[in-house]
Amino acid sequence: MIQDKVVVITGASSGIGQATALQLAKDGAKVVLSARRTDRLEKTVQEIVQSGGIASYFAADVISKTDVQALADFAMHTYGRIDVWVNNAGLMPLSYLNKRKIDEWETMVDVNIKGVLYGIAAAIPIMEQQHSGHIINVSSVAGHRVGMAGAVYSGTKFAVRAITEGLRMELSPTANIRATIISPGLVETELLTTITDEDALIALKARASSALQSQDIANAIAYAVDQPEWASVNEIVIRPTTQP
Ligand code: NDP
Questions:
Q1: Which regions in the chain score pLDDT beneath 70?
Q2: Ligand 1 within 6 A of 37 CB?
Q3: Is the sign of the CA dihedral 63, 66, 68, 74 positive or negative?
Q4: Which of 3, 35, 54, 147 is deepest in the core (most CB within 10 A)?
Q5: Taking the complete model, does pTM exceed 0.90, yes or no?
Q6: Residue 136 forms beta bridges with which residues?
Q7: Which of 191, 213, 236 for mutating ligand 1's site (highest number of atoms within 8 Å of CB)?
Q8: What domains does the chain contain, in order, with CATH numbers?
Q9: What is the structure's pLDDT at 208?
């Protein structure tokens, strides 16, 4: 059941996170949207509220553990519990290793891995206390296999899958916290704008014949959230039909 669940979503200012917030709010969840671009968050919250839904937003940069903890505090203060935490914020500045884009490697590790860990760290004590919760981490098909110019990005997404599996093993049986990995193939979003290596962009466009829409991934997340408490959806992999 999605109705009345309190759901925190990072990276909710665009793409998959925004579509997920809209879908879950439509299904009756109380959603807390987070990202850095508050103008976008505010617009989406207005859209939800105008359609009769319940939503609020909180600005947080996931590279800051203080910001992520403040996001959890805000959700608790506003709604009194957190049923689902979606770690979705991410970047994909693909590049060939010999371009040595070390700053981009660092940002990817900070946002895609450490940002997810900070979300988990903020959610665990609350969910342990509730003896109920669900943490959903957005990995990728790139978390299953490495593509050209994707060594570091894939590294971060493999890490997200490993961390989520560890979370499931440790906290599902003892604390009733479910853990779900969402692994999309190519989705048409703003994510490609983070690529500064033109050769990597050309390589990606050459192998991308079609893309999913953010709504396709929102539907997958809604499915995982909607399952009864005894059923834990561990991973959903979803590709465009024509993606090899
Ligand atoms: P978008 O670029 O549309 O969304 C990325 C979101 O992450 C934005 O809301 C952005 O918000 C947020 N974000 C980025 N950096 C930070 C930060 N430091 N702190 C807080 N929020 C941040 O891309 P997608 O919707 O495609 O990406 C969502 C997730 O899906 C990512 O984890 C991505 O790796 C994953 N994914 C995407 C695929 C695709 O093909 N699009 C395929 C597989 C996985 P803001 O800038 O406002 O902070």
A1: none
A2: yes
A3: negative
A4: 35
A5: yes
A6: 86, 180
A7: 191
A8: 6-238 (3.40.50.720)
A9: 77
